[in-house]
Amino acid sequence: MRNVYLITKILLLAALLTTQAGVLSLGAQQKSDYRIQPEDILEIAVYEQSDLDVRIRVTFGGEIAFPLIGKIKAADLTVGELEEKITKLLAADYLVNPQVRVFIAEYHIKQISVLGAVKKPGKYDMYAERDTTVLEAIAMAGGFSDVANADGTKVIRTEDGKESSISVKVSNITKKGQKDKDIKLEPGDIVFVPESFF
Question: How far apart are CA 34 and CA 22, in angstroms?
Fold first, then answer.
């Protein structure tokens, strides 16, 4: 019982620190390896061409409509790759040496669910600029409840219409330091913590 309490305390502290770090990183430069997703909102500016400056949402199909060029596939590109793509298209037919800047103004919110023996079951937003792990998701949900069977934790994932279950033995992560066992979550994942029967 005491071990579960200590683990919960550690997880809550870790979540608080990582959340603060995430906020700071948003205020600083964006991650260069982040890949643009449908529903992200982009701000695109072309130096000394203010009539081409746009604020636009990426469609569900992963496209944006940009002045002069028309529809462009933006999803799955990094900011740098999209800048390069727009620059080449503008330089090919419209501008001499265009300088394009892309900024992600708003990230599409991706969510996971945390259910079972946690203090605050429900849906939670994933981190925008980095991966969200199982322990972080549990910390978002207030940590394990007093009756939790932490080592029985499972991640339920649906891919291509098929449901799979991934077991996560929390003590391997917290007591043995096996951080690789703290798996990265995918949008739509369900983290389920069963109750202990002892």
Answer: 14
